[in-house]
Structures are given as C-alpha cells and as structure tokens.
Amino acid sequence: MHASLMIRDRLKARRFKDNVIVILLFFIIPWLVYALGVDVTTQSLAAGDGVIYGYPTKAYSAGGSLWNPYVTGGTYTVKDVGAQTVYPLNVVMMLFPNMFGFNVFLMLHYSLGGIFTFLYLRSIELEMRAAFLGGIVFMFSGFMAAHLGHHSMVSAAVYALLILYAVEKYLKKNHFGFLLLGAGALALSILADYLAVTFYTGMIVLPYIIYRSIAAGKTARKGARKVILDVVKLILAIFLGGVLLAMVYVLPVIESLPYATRESVSYEFFSSYNFPAFMLPMLLFPFLYGGTNVFYFMGPWNFSELSGYMAILVVIVAGGAFLALRKKNSLVWFWAIVAVAGFVLTLGADTPVYNLMYQMPGYNMFRAPARNWYEVNFAFTILFAIGLDYLLKVSENRRARKLYTNKLIKISVLVGAVAV
Fold first, then answer.
1. How many CB atoms lie within 10 A of CB 36?
2. Whole-model pTM above 0.70?
C-alpha cells in the first residue's frame, strides 16, 4: 500500500514537472518564431494594421482613460472596436507603455492559445506529446498567423479552448469552479473586443456543450433529466455568466448600436470578402497567388484575410484520424462537421447557405466570411492531435499501426492529387 502511494506521488510529481516544462515552452516558442532577429523595443512584430491602428490604440489605452478626446471630437473608448480599454490583459501595456509592451502583449496571446489548446487536449485524455504539438499547430495555424496584425482578433480567438476545457472538466468533476472558469473565459473573449470572433466561438461552444453532455450522460448512465440539467447549467453559466461579467463593455456597445451602421447591413455588405473557391490551392501552397506584400498578391483582396493554410502534415494526419477513428471516437465526427461547416461559411455568397446565415441575429452584423477559417483551423488542430495521439498509442501494435499507416497513405495520395 505504501509503495503504491509512493509510485502514485512520483507519477504526479513527474506529470506536474512535464506540464510546467510544456507551459514554459509555449511562452518561449512564439518569440523564436516571430521575434528572432527583431529589435522588439523599437519594431512592431505586427505589420500593417498592427502598426497603423494596433499600437497607437494600445499605447493610448495604456493610460487607462475611458475617454479619448483625439478621435471624432471625443469618444468613449469602451465601445470602440479594438480599444480593449477594460480588457484585463491590457495591464501588460500599462506596465510597459511602449513598443516592447505591445510586442509582449501580442506574443502573450499566442502563448495562451497554445496553453489553452494543450489543456483542452489533455482534458479529452490525449497523450502529452500529441497535446503539445496540437497547441503548436493552433498557435501557428493560418488564421492565427495571418491575423498577427489584428491584435483584438487574436486576443478574442484564444479563449474558446479554455471554455471547452472548462466544459470537459465540469462534466467530469461537477465542480462549480469550472462553470465560473467557462464564464470568465467567455467574458475575456468579449472584453478582448472583437465580437465576430466571440460569436464564432459561441457557434462552436453551444453545440459542443449539448454533444458532450449527451456523451457524458451515456458514459455515466445518467438519465435524460440529468443530462438536460447539465446542458442548461453549462449554457446559462457560460453564456449568461460571461455576458454579465463583461457587462462593463456590453452595455456601451448596446447603447451605441442605434447610432452604428452595423445594426442593419445589406446582404452585399454582409457577404463581402469571402474566400473564393478558385483559391483552394492556397491550402497547400499559401503563396501560390503571390507573397504577403499587397503589391505582389494576385488574389481578389487582402492576403491575411484569405489565409487558412495548415501544414500539409496536419491535413494528412487529421484526414487519417477521420478515416481510421470515425467509428471509434465520436469526437472525430463532431470536429469534422465543424471543419466542413466552417469551410462552407468561408465561401460566403458562393453557396446558398449564406442566405440562411443572413437571417441569424448577431451573425448577420459581421462581414468577411473568410474569417470563418478560424473554425476550420480550430477543428483541424483537434483532429490532428487526435490522429497523432492514436498513432503514438498504436506504435507498439503492428497490425493497428499498419492499418493507420494505410489510411495516412490514402490521404497523402489524395492531397498529392489535388496539389497536382
């Protein structure tokens, strides 16, 4: 008995040590990718909007003032998109009110994206290496990398993984603290000040709560009443609780809506800036239509908005996960549906689906359908991690390894055929 307790304690200590190392790596890696060789005290890591709008906005908000007299004769900054005046992580700019602080603020959110992805993937019982690489994949997915200059968009995007982590932990432990964590994560996404991404987050989280509550109910043999109660508690706690926690931001936005052009938009405006189908090869060759410089990009509009690139290996492993595990792991189906639905939305008015989305309150206030690459990259990240986890676990099983390898070969051939 004593020996088994010692072994358990050692395993816990080792697990804790491994988690600390992984989290430290997540704080280091974005700097190695984006900042190596750059003087971060004078040069912004985010070009374009990051320099023109991002840094000036953050530099002003570092003072903590809720009123800016220099814009349109004076404005209440809480309601202004991207100002992030009441966003708690704005404390970074208050500590370092300069270019260095802005760069730290940017890199911190990439680190958090990796950490929250890692936590979520571990909560669905994936192997540590698979969870770690999944975090890396999300941090540098097409959406996250291309929108480096959109500080509020990236800030809002990282909290979806933390919400899903809270959902998983609540369903397993039934602890109120995880409901509060989910509400806090949604509130932070709202306060990060890019409501379109928060809305996309809600479009993932809501069906996920229903799906996982039903799955957990079947596993634990809960009755229908208990499952419904879990769904109601999670939805109310996360969505209503999150909005209430962010009310300092939500109220000014609601009050300003009658004076905003976005309260009612035309279908042409709503469906503008979609991802055209002829640019699909960019998923394999991101620079096929030119580089990131606007003067050399031959696409219909902004390169950063059209980028949904995921490394080819990610596509192959995610596809292999679907082929090999769709009958064994229902999560694979959920995330595959999210990926397909997200991609259809990126096409905008090129499909009849977007006419239906125009009728959805809230969603119909946001243009740029191509930003739905967020959901696609999100889903592919998780499918990749699930596939990699399976590959690591079957490495000792020759037959299972052979079957899975055959699936990967089929996907590779398909990807190669598309590329050709």
1. 7
2. yes
pLDDT digits (tens, 9 = 90+) for 8-19: 656 677 778 888
For 67, the enclosing helix (H) or strand (E) is: strand 67-68
Among residues 188, 154, 143, 114, the alpha carbon closest in space to that of 307 is found at: 143
What single DSSP character describes residue 51? I
Q: 212-236 burial string, b = 16+ CB within 10 Å, else e?
A: bbbebbeeeebeeeebeebbebbbe
Helix ranges restricted to H, 257-361: 267-270, 303-306, 312-325, 330-346, 353-357
Question: In which element (H, E) is residue 116 found?
Answer: helix 99-123
Conformation bin of residue 193: beta by default, left when phi > 0, alpha when psi is -120 to 50: left
Express each pLDDT in 240-297 by its tens digit.
999 999 998 888 878 877 766 655 678 888 888 888 888 888 888 888 887 766 557 7
Q: Are 265 and 365 in contact (CB under 8 A)?
A: yes
Q: Please say whether the dihedral angle defined by the alpha carbons of residues 87, 92, 95 and 100, taken in this order, is positive or negative.
A: negative
- Six token digits for residue 199: 């809305």
Residue from 416, 393, 414, 412 nearest 317 by CA:
412
